[in-house]
Amino acid sequence: MDMVTLRAPFLLSLSLFLFTTLAAQQPRMLKTIIVDAGHGGKDYGAHGAYEGGLGSYEKNVTLAISNKLVAELRRQLPDVKIVPTRTTDIYQSPPEKAEIANNNKGDLFICIHADAVALKTGRRQIGTREETRHKITYTGKGKKKKKKSTPYTVTVPVYEHFKIGSQRRGTSMWLFAAHKTSDKLKAVMRNEGEEDMEIETDTDSSSYDQIDFSQPEYKMMASVHANRYQLKSIKLAEFIDQEVEKTERPALGINQRQKGIWVLQATNMPAVLVETGFITNYHDERYLNSDEGQQEIAECITRAVKRYKEQLESQKPAGASTATDNSRAEQQVLKEAGKQMKSEGH
Ligand SMILES: [Zn+2]
Question: Which of 31, 45, 140, 175 could disulfide-link to 39, CB 3.0 to 4.6 Å?
Answer without folding.
Answer: 45
